[in-house]
Specification:
The protein has helices spanning about 1-10, 40-45, 50-55, 90-100, 120-130, 190-205, 230-235, 250-260, 280-285, 305-325, 340, 350-360, 370-385, 415-420, 465-470, 475-490, and strands at about 20-25, 60, 105-110, 140, 165, 175, 210-215, 270, 290-295, 330, 390-395, 495, 505-510, 515-520, 525, 535, 545, 550. By secondary structure, it is α/β, with parallel strands linked by helices. It folds into three domains: about 1-115 and about 190-480, TIM Barrel, CATH 3.20.20.80; about 120-175, Alpha-Beta Complex (Oligo-1,6-glucosidase, domain 2), CATH 3.90.400; about 495-550, Immunoglobulin-like (Sandwich). Helix 6 packs parallel to helix 8 (about 250-260) and helix 9 packs across helix 10. The longest helix has 18 residues, at about 305-325. It is globular, with a radius of gyration of 23 Å. Beta-D-glucopyranose binds near residues 112, 178 and 215. Beta-D-glucopyranose binds near residues 178, 215 and 334.
């Protein structure tokens, strides 16, 4: 009982709650639509506050809800200190914070500092003021190359395809690492730095508990001329001096942000989305002098494979212990094929995210996928993840075992990646952003009164919340039970591996005796005496079935 109380207080401690939190990502435009316009909104989140409380999460992370033309699903922000009028008002936002806080749920919002929308007033002013103006200095404008400047300043590509430079009317070019409508800020400019501090204070003053930082590794750039070519860039080491990515000087920004976080009681917290070359470099974003935590996407890009999982878990725990932070586990988010689908696709050696891409590009053929296996593995992987030290980031709909939607007609797609190719390979990310089914019947499966902004397939009926809530064996029931037990069982941030005698079976024990066993293989695994203390997961005649996880209570409980 003592350790139960200990873990409970650690979970609710205002200064450390994030270290082992279960954080649920809400993609607001696809969560719940309260005003019946087909787009999810902030009052929709309020209307589902009880659902979130019953699920048993510690915090929500809201993807962007700011005014936006939706050139990139809201990651093109036109006003950082407001709510998109289609999603509600600032008063609605305050009501949402109150409703979630009342239920003991903390709130993290997304900050998008690498670029704004081209509709942001500063970018509009820069266009109007013309070349050489102070207004253009807040972004990255350059003259073109070629005889009349008709060629871009360099051959760099944008993440969503095409050139990373766009020409404006007077002939200058601006840099956009993502969509054309997402001009990159110039982080050497004091106005940019000051404005983001204002934004952090604005949301912190409204009661926000933390921030997720979009492409945190890209803000600072060395654009000394001559600019390197794309091929030259690719050959450069990622050692802190790369011109475009993971530069050492980006941490000066986060040190300043940390000082703002610490102005508050309790201090606000941050989690970096930083795609960097090594866990060591990732740890710099997670330091106590920086953002505090950084996403670890290693499981998200791993196969359903015992050896890969074990190495990733061990490496990340060692790394987070060394940095003083705690690690983060992720299997799905708004940028990748849902894991219940990914795990049902044939292995494409070492490239599980790519697997989803290929399948979607082919239109989602049914004969490529084993959906039962996908869901079985997804449930096993999630139970393993929820048993680990560190925080778990869950993506809306995964608690229903929801599948990726592959066959969205081209004229209904929204993701710029679908239309422009590029790094995301033309597959688009709309399939994991299809609005949630709340009821098996009714318009848009209870998402709202109108047709949802992305088409929902008929198969969503069987994943609806009302169907799953009534079924004790559903994925929703499993998540609820796991999150409830996790609150009781979560303890010190360590684990010890126990040898199982099988390369495809992983087993670890937490300091309070809570044991997690995952069978990645196809042959059942004999649990021996442990079989009598199973608190969660399937067991069949004393054995752990293929592709499943069990939680075993501490002895004597
Ligand atoms: C976000 C994406 C977005 C991109 C550009 C990523 O980190 O997760 O959804 O398209 O940044 O803002």
């Amino acid at each position: 009982m003592t350790d139960v109380l200990l873990s409970e207080s650690r979970r609710t401690d205002p200064a450390t709650w994030w270290r082992q939190a279960a954080v649920y990502q809400i993609y607001p435009r696809s969560f719940a639509d309260a005003n019946g316009d087909g787009l999810g909104d902030i009052p929709g989140v309020v209307s589902r506050a009880d659902y979130l409380a019953e699920l048993g999460i510690d915090a929500v992370w809201l993807s962007p809800f700011y005014p936006s033309a939706l050139a990139d699903g809201g990651y093109d922000v036109a006003d950082y200190r407001n709510v998109d009028p289609r999603l509600g008002t600032l008063e609605d936002f305050d009501r949402m914070i109150a409703a979630l806080h009342e239920r003991g749920i903390r709130v993290i919002v997304d900050i998008v500092p690498n670029h704004s929308s081209n509709l942001h007033p500063w970018f509009q002013e820069a266009l109007a003021a013309g070349r050489g103006s102070a207004e253009r200095e807040r972004y990255i404008f350059r003259e073109g190359t070629g005889e009349n400047g008709e060629q871009p300043p360099s051959d760099w590509g944008a993440a969503f395809g095409g050139s990373a430079w766009e020409r404006v009317e007077d002939g200058q070019w601006y840099l956009h690492s993502f969509a054309t409508e997402q001009p990159d800020f110039n982080w050497d400019h004091p106005d940019v730095r000051a404005d983001f501090l204002r934004t952090l204070r604005f949301w912190s003053d409204r009661g926000v508990d933390g921030f997720r930082i979009d492409v945190a590794h890209m803000l600072t750039k060395d654009l000394t001329e001559p600019l390197p070519s794309r091929a030259e860039l690719e050959g450069l080491p990622h050692d802190g001096n790369h011109p475009l990515s993971d530069r050492d000087d980006v941490h000066e920004i986060y040190a300043e942000w940390r000082r703002v976080f610490n102005e508050y009681d309790p201090p606000r917290t941050g989690v970096a989305e930083a795609w960097v070359s090594t866990p060591e470099r990732r740890a710099r974003y997670a330091s106590a002098e920086g953002l505090g935590q950084a996403f670890n996407f290693d499981l998200l890009v791993a196969d359903f494979d015992a050896a890969q999982f074990r190495t990733i878990i061990a490496d990340n725990l060692a790394q987070s212990a060394a940095s003083g932070s705690s690690t983060t586990w992720v299997l799905s988010n708004h940028d990748v094929t849902r894991h219940a689908t990914r795990y049902g696709l044939p292995a494409l050696e070492g490239r599980p995210v790519k697997q989803g891409v290929e399948w979607i590009k082919a239109g989602g053929p049914e004969d490529w996928i084993d959906r039962e296996q996908g869901l079985r593995r997804a449930r096993a992987a999630t139970l393993l993840l929820l048993g680990l030290p560190g925080s778990a980031y869950l993506y809306q709909g995964e608690e229903l075992g929801l599948q990726e939607v592959a066959d969205i007609p081209a004229d209904r797609r929204q993701d710029p990646a679908f239309f422009r190719g590029g790094e995301f390979d033309g597959f688009g990310r709309d399939g994991c952003r299809v609005p949630l089914p709340w009821t098996a019947a009714g318009p848009s499966f209870g998402f709202g009164e109108a047709e949802a902004h992305l088409p929902q397939p008929a198969s969503f009926a069987k994943y609806a919340v009302d169907v799953e809530a009534a079924d004790p064996d559903s994925t929703l029931s499993l998540y609820r039970e796991a999150l409830r037990l996790r609150r009781v069982l979560q303890t010190d941030e360590q684990l010890e591996w126990t040898e199982t005698g099988r390369a495809d079976v992983l087993s670890f024990v937490r300091p309070n005796g809570w044991r997690v066993v995952t069978n990645f293989g196809t042959a059942p695994f004999d649990l021996g005496a442990d079989a009598s203390r199973i608190v969660l997961g399937p067991v069949d005649a004393g054995s752990l079935p293929a592709e499943s996880t069990v939680w075993i209570a501490p002895a004597g409980r």
